[in-house]
Specification:
The complex is a heterodimer of chains A (230) and B (303). Chain A has a 10-stranded mixed sheet. Chain A has a 5-stranded mixed sheet with strand order 1-15-9-10-13, with no helix packed on it. In chain A, strand 11 and strand 12 (179-180) form a beta hairpin. By secondary structure, chain A is mostly beta strands. Helices cover 5% and strands 46% of the residues of chain A. Chain B is an alpha+beta fold. Helix content of chain B is 27%, strand content 46%. Chain B has 7 helices and 17 strands. Chain B has helices at residues 10-22, 149-154, 181-196, 202-212, 215-223, 229-240, 243-257, and strands at residues 4-9, 25-33, 37-55, 59-79, 84-86, 89-93, 96-100, 103-105, 112-118, 123-138, 159-172, 176-177, 261-265, 267-270, 279-281, 283-290, 294-301. In chain B, strands 2, 3, 4, 9, 10, 11, 12 and 13 form an 8-stranded antiparallel sheet that branches. Chain B has a 3-stranded antiparallel sheet with strand order 1-17-16. Chain B has a two-stranded antiparallel ribbon with strand order 5-8. Chain B is elongated and about 110 Å long. Classes of the chains: A mainly beta (230), B alpha+beta (303). The A-B interface holds A 1-4, 6-7, 19-20, 22, 24, 57-58, 60, 62, 91, 93, 95, 97, 129, 131, 133, 135-137, 157-165, 167, 169-170, 188-189, 191, 193, 209-213 and B 85-86, 88-91, 98-102, 104-109, 111, 196-197, 199-204, 206-207, 209-214, 217-218.
Chain lengths: 230, 303
């Protein structure tokens, strides 16, 4: 069976996570945590984890799997075989393992009345990471919808070579008042890591698809139309 | 001393054998599993050319009898290996990766890829054989006990003397596969991948193919094919799938079953005419031998 879903995934949004996107949030304070999974804005499931010294450095949460399990009221709906313990300073990594839903996660620390929101994937904060893998070749815009910073991303058309395509090292992008760098060019399957330095929701949108490998030396024409500033 | 002696020159015997050769056709199919892959073939072939040499040691040698492949379709089946995206390191450290994105795989299992290759026209092979000649006497099973030779002739079921080519050795020559087979295999793999991924957009197919790299190299690795693809295919078809045996057995069975020459017994001398029954003479003790120049058939007249 071929996983067709990953080829339907065009563009990514850190605030509405889909396949091939992930957000990472470092968690420093020990104690119990509860995460609520939202799909298309609706709460669909929750999960729990504990930050403690014996925990590990990375806790992966597949929100599609959690949402598939639904709300059980137990506060812990991740894969039961997974150890829900994270070391202080470890990283909670939220991703979508399957399906076409768009997800967000809100994580609270503490219990009862003392519970407070420490992470909302719909708006990332300094120290968070957004990772993206864009497969569909083309030209994209990358926008921080919080401060309107923009960057350009080009995903090159895959070349047929004798050696199998190996993803190059992921590109590192600082998402602060502006994106740095503001122009990115990657291979399909090559990762992008957006290191958040100010409040951010990173949206990657397709502007111009590439449907064939560019012919060497052939002239390219582009028409860019912008609405006049009001 | 025989009553009748009949001789055929080498040229005449070539004509007789040509008729036998031209009536031969065979088709077969088989498949096998060879660890990392499966293979099957479907073949149909006939014979052409060949020369007959009569030899003084009472044998004949038939050389360079071409096997002409009307169909030679080979299908290779492999499990293509999983391909995944993601899994790369977000935060590398001198001590290893501190944070890694999960992998998402393109295939949920290892799907079968069937690679059909049409080798007809690309493969040359020939047969040589050494044989003696032998006689046989055929009584048609449809002939009823009450029939005399006139009834049997009228019913189309007369007894017959037959002359067979009786192979002692059959040598199927190793296939000679044209060099182009490497390109053919590569195109076949490409087409098979396109068929498998046909429902995906072109860019997605190109992406998956780029993840595979050279498809021919991939298949070579999976199937452990050496540099010479032709030789590998020869071995696969001829030995592993037993096609050499199929060819040899088919030709043997055919020659043992179908005579190179036959005639009615009793042998017609005069056709029926003027209300008279045909005149025939019974033939007995038919024997055959071969010299350097001729095939000699001897027989007696009598019951």
């Amino acid at each position: 069976m071929i996983n067709t879903e990953i080829f339907m995934q065009i563009g990514l949004d850190s605030g509405a996570l889909t396949l091939l996107g992930a957000v990472a949030h470092p968690v420093h304070e020990p104690g119990p945590y509860r995460g609520v999974v939202l799909r298309d804005g609706e709460e669909v499931a929750d999960f729990g984890f504990v930050v403690a010294e014996e925990g590990r450095t990375q806790l992966d949460v597949d929100v599609a799997k959690v949402a598939g399990a639904g709300r059980t009221g137990c506060g812990c709906c991740t894969d039961p075989s997974a150890d829900p313990h994270l070391r202080p300073g470890g990283v909670l990594l939220v991703h979508v393992g399957s399906g076409r839903g768009a997800y967000a996660v809100v994580v609270s620390a503490g219990e009862g009345d003392a519970r407070r929101v420490v992470f909302d994937s719909r708006q990332l904060e300094k120290g968070d990471l957004f990772t993206a893998t864009v497969l569909r070749p083309g030209r994209y815009t990358v926008t921080n919808t919080v401060n309107r910073a923009r960057a350009e991303l080009e995903v090159r058309y895959p070349e047929r070579r004798r050696e199998p395509l190996r993803a190059a090292e992921p590109v590192q992008v600082r998402a602060g008042d502006r994106f740095d760098p503001e122009r990115l060019a990657v291979q399909p399957t090559q990762g992008q890591v957006y290191a958040v330095e100010t409040s951010a929701r990173v949206v990657i949108e397709l502007v111009e698809p590439y449907d064939a490998a560019p012919v060497e030396g052939a002239p390219r024409f582009r028409l860019v139309a912008r609405r006049p500033a009001e | 001393m025989s009553d009748i002696t009949l001789a055929a020159s080498e040229s005449a015997f070539n004509t007789l054998f040509g008729q036998l050769r031209d009536a031969f056709t065979e088709s077969a199919s088989d498949s096998g599993s060879f660890g990392p892959f499966t293979a099957s073939y479907s073949v149909a072939f006939h014979l052409e050319n060949g020369s007959v040499d009569l030899r003084g040691n009472n044998t004949i040698k038939i050389s360079e009898l071409d096997i002409v492949w009307d169909t030679l379709a080979v299908t290779l089946g492999i499990d293509i290996p999983e391909q995944c995206v993601g899994g790369w390191c977000i935060i590398p450290t001198p001590f290893g990766c501190a944070l890694r994105v999960p992998k998402i795989c393109i295939f949920s299992d290892n799907p079968d890829l069937l690679i059909p290759i049409d080798l007809s026209g690309l493969l040359r092979s020939e047969v040589s054989l050494v044989a003696s000649l032998r006689t046989g006497y055929f009584v048609d099973p449809a002939r009823q006990p009450w029939m005399d030779y006139v009834d049997a002739e009228n019913a189309g079921v007369p007894n017959k003397w037959q002359l067979f080519v009786d192979p002692q050795t059959v040598d199927v020559d190793v296939f000679d596969i044209a060099d182009i087979v490497g390109d053919l295999l590569e195109h076949a793999i490409d087409a098979a991948i396109d068929t498998l991924l046909g429902f995906l957009p072109g860019w997605a197919r190109d992406l998956i193919k780029s993840l595979f790299g050279s498809l021919i190299d991939l298949v070579r690795d999976l199937l452990d094919i050496p540099d010479d693809i032709g030789e590998w295919l020869q071995d696969l078809l001829g030995t592993s799938l037993g096609l050499l045996n199929v060819i040899a057995t088919a030709i043997l069975d055919y020659l043992l079953k179908d005579p190179v020459w036959s005639f009615e017994d009793p042998f017609p001398i005069l056709d029926a005419a003027g209300g008279l029954i045909p005149v025939k003479i019974p033939v007995a003790n038919l024997a055959v031998h071969v010299t350097d120049d001729e095939m000699v058939v001897e027989a007696n007249v009598g019951p």
